[in-house]
């Protein structure tokens, strides 16, 4: 059993923003909120997926909505706990553990806040191994686990519960409610037993986030190459190094969608890498040819510091490195590709793996 | 205590369509569904508002959405009961009575179906004394009673519960869910004690619907004047007799909105009465001047038969009589006018009472 302390949150939030592949909201804000909760309530216990009792009652909790809005509309003090409590009351069970449903930005720290406030341990794992924009896009869906009953709450005190016939229906109803609630809300969903978590989760994500965050920090301290350190941690590869020359961004139907273009530097000047995103980066095209796609991870880092850059903070002139890294292998199954492959998002492309040669 | 039998439903549905002031959906469909339920489960007991025990647990139930859609997408066999059961489970109470939240078309017969299926008595009253298009527009809102917790269910098996900070927030979240669910859904809301029902309901609405329906029937049988019979029953007045010459209709954000123009006949030919509706008729203008507005009732009947005509069945060439009748006096209070007066619906008009002189 590991303990998560206020001083671990910097590394956790930084690593989570890397796995967040551009989405998940500003990691800084999530870190501040979680630090405040840990200072007030003490450290949170982190339990390995393999150590969960079969009959554990695990309630994941997350922020839903457009990251562009999340950075301006903070959750209220007890909103996150209320989401968990609303779901617990509806299903008539007492939660024994909380969990992250995705690894990414705010959604790696939001569950830390609830765990601290409610005095519950947190599972060291998540339902994706990265971030994706829609709520049915989790490995538990592939394992036949239902997203609902789910709870949704806003910072004004409005609460809702949905109990739907498919996980896609949960996404649809919760997305509309999120838009009504001001484009961000807290959700608790995919209530699972310990056995179900072991079957369907990616194990070790919180530890991995901390380890990625620490690797970036170490490289910065030692004047090393933080980008190379992240590539190493993820077993990924560097796609492109350059300067942001264009960003198109729009917040529609509760998502932050857009494209960004990165012109190469030095030898590769004139080679244009275009990133297409919907909360998260989904496709990377080099000179018009896709070279990496969802479900693999496409990550943008500040070239000098190695700090992860979310889609909403991409700016003209930013010097960035774009990398790709393999997703959990279950995402490459036919059902995984149907759920989160490029065609689901409207790109007429077969998925391209991060480690394929260009 | 009165019993509602299958043979009463013709008169009930017809009278409810009169009070529905153009909204509430096709009464014929509601009648058929209720007749089927009464044949299967036997008559439903109807309890006067004054006879309710203080601690009764009364759950109103209704169809929400665009009447234009309701006539094509019937509720599933158990959808209506499931809405009541979902709310009962959420509030942790056993309902003792069901009720209509509005008097109007389908929403006077939907609760009959649930009462028959669940073997519960029905309250002889409703929350409006007429029909209005949004769910906060009920006298219980004026009495400070909360719409939520509320349940919403669709015919596919999706269920939701909302618990909101205001009744306007309940409308907003439930309207979005209704649109997602295909523009019609069943809701159960405004859970009340018997004492609260006595304080905030319009008493006797179901009996009044039956009595209006029977008056139309009697006038038809005796070759009398069914339109005059309805004017008598309601204490209203005849505004205009003519022929429909134009109908503009659009289904937007879960409502059926539009306008209809009625040209006068004989002596009044050339005098144009325009009806403006959002599910229900809200304003009647004669030659460009408003002569009756919400909250009073504006009702369109077939001139010959006296049958009420819903906004979705208004057709070019239809010979119609337009009447106005006074609403429950509580609707004319300042708070009532703020909730359902012409300005709420975007008309820059003071309310005009049905019985004012033109």
TrEMBL record, chains A, B:
All residue ranges annotated as the S-Me-THD-like C-terminal domain in the record: 166-350
Signal peptide start-end: none
Residue span, S-Me-THD N-terminal domain: 7-163
Pfam families the UniProt entry points to: S-Me-THD_C, S-Me-THD_N
SUPFAM superfamilies: CV3147-like
Entry protein name: DUF917 family protein
Organism: Kribbella solani
């Amino acid at each position: 059993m590991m303990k998560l302390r206020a001083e671990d949150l910097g590394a956790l939030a930084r690593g989570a923003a890397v796995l967040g592949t551009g989405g998940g909201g500003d990691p800084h804000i999530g870190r501040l909120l979680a630090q405040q909760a840990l200072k007030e309530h003490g450290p949170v216990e982190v339990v390995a997926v393999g150590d969960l009792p079969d009959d554990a009652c695990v309630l994941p909790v997350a922020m839903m909505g457009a990251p562009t809005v999340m950075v301006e509309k903070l959750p209220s003090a007890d909103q996150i706990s209320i989401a968990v409590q609303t779901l617990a009351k509806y299903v008539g069970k007492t939660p024994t553990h909380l969990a992250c449903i995705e690894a990414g930005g705010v959604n790696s720290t939001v569950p830390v806040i609830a765990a601290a406030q409610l005095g519950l341990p947190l599972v060291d794992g998540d339902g994706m191994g990265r971030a994706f924009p829609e709520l049915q896009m989790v490995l538990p869906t592939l394992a036949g686990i239902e997203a609902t009953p789910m709870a949704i709450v806003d910072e004004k005190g409005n609460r809702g519960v949905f109990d739907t016939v498919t996980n896609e229906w949960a996404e649809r109803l919760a997305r509309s409610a999120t838009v009504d609630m001001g484009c961000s809300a807290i959700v608790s969903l995919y209530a699972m037993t310990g056995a179900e978590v072991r079957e369907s989760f990616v194990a070790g994500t919180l530890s991995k986030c901390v380890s990625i965050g620490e690797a970036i920090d170490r490289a910065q301290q030692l004047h090393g190459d933080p980008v190379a350190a992240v590539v190493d941690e993820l077993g990924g590869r560097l796609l492109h190094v350059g300067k942001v020359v264009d960003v198109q961004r729009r917040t529609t139907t509760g998502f932050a969608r857009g494209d960004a273009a990165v012109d190469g530097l030095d030898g590769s000047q004139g080679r244009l890498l275009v990133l297409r995103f919907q909360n998260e980066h989904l496709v990377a095209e080099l000179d018009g040819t896709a070279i990496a796609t969802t479900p693999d991870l496409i990550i943008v880092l500040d070239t000098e510091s190695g700090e992860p850059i979310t889609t909403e903070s991409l700016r003209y002139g930013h010097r960035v490195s774009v990398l790709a890294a393999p997703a959990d292998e279950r995402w490459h199954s036919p059902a995984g590709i149907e759920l989160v492959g490029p065609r689901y998002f409207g790109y007429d492309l077969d998925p391209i793996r991060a480690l394929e040669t260009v």
